[in-house]
Amino acid sequence: MADSNDDAYCRDRVARFDPDRAAVIAFQPAESRPGLYALHAFNLEISHLRETAGEPALGVMRLQWWRDALDEAASGRERRHAVLQPLAAAIRRHDLPAAYFRRLLDAREADLDASPPADLAAYARETGGTLAALAGQVVSGRPGNEDIGAAWALVGWLRAAAFFRWPLPEGAEPRAIVREAAALLPPAADPYGRALAALTRAYIRKLDRLDYDLSDSRAAEPLRLRGWRIAFGRG
Predict the structure, then answer these.
(1) DSSP assignment, residue 112?
(2) Which listed residue, 18, 25, 29, 72, has the most CB atoms within 10 A of its CB?
(3) Can you give the pLDDT at residue 234?
């Protein structure tokens, strides 16, 4: 069972290391926020392994730890972890599908490879799309926003490539990736999707102003006035 310290830990982690989606969460109904913070704190645990694990084998071990921990939590046994307890509580409260977590964990193994994903669109859907689908269920009671989450992941991958100076997949071009992301932004059915789509469009407009130049350090910089951009859908 999660306690208030665990909930605070998840909230603080997301605010510190994923401020964009922390801003998105701030616009969600109060009763859904603890589950969203737990879900996004879990995403931080598995999405930063390339930087934190030190070597791929350790990253693979950490992903397996999470697979085992979630399986045990589903059967009523929980390992002690500041993110696992709030996450397990969210899974039970919102009936989050185990298959979505398996998709996320499997997809994150690609992060441990120094080469860019061969199919960036598929990678974006399995990572950002799956996470957004789970968030949609927390907010609205049904999975949703997978396209919007994939669009967010595509734009986020470009920003990460600019920050870390990662190579793009062979034959990929930033302008084409952004066009693909923009095409995945249909009207959202719930407030999480609407907020995430607003920030995605704002980053798209920023990349457009920079002429899609990933060598420009501003391409990796976070947006200012996130709440204003979410509230008014402005870039």
Answers:
(1) G
(2) 25
(3) 65
* Mean pLDDT lowest among 31-35, 53-57, 154-158: 53-57
Q: For the chain, how far is it from start to end, CA to CA, in angstroms? A: 41
**What residues have CB less than 8 Å from 21, skipping those under 6 apart?**
14, 40, 196
How many residues are listed for the chain in this entry? 235
Cβ neighbours of residue 71 closer than 8 Å, sequence gap 6 or more: none
- CA–CA dist 155, 127 (Å, integer): 13
Cβ atoms within 10 Å of 76's Cβ, excluding its own: 7
What's the pLDDT band for 219 if we cut at 50, 70, 90? Answer: very high
pTM, 2 dp: 0.94
Please tell me which residue, 110 or 85, carries the higher pLDDT value. 85
CA distances from 213 to 107, 108, 208, 222 (A): 27, 27, 9, 16
Q: What tokens appear for 1 in the block? A: 């069972």
In 3D, which of 227, 223, 231, 233 has the Cα closest to residue 155?
223
- Residue 182: count other Cβ atoms within 10 Å of its Cβ: 15
pLDDT tens digits along 152-176: 999 999 999 999 888 888 888 999 9
- Phi and psi torsions of 113, nearest 5°: -90, 135
148 residue type, one letter: I
Which residue segments constitute the domains of the chain, with CATH numbers given? Answer: 4-232 (1.10.600.10)
DSSP E strands in 87-203: the ranges are none
Conformational region of residue 145, where left means phi above 0, alpha means psi within -120 to 50, and beta covers everything else: left
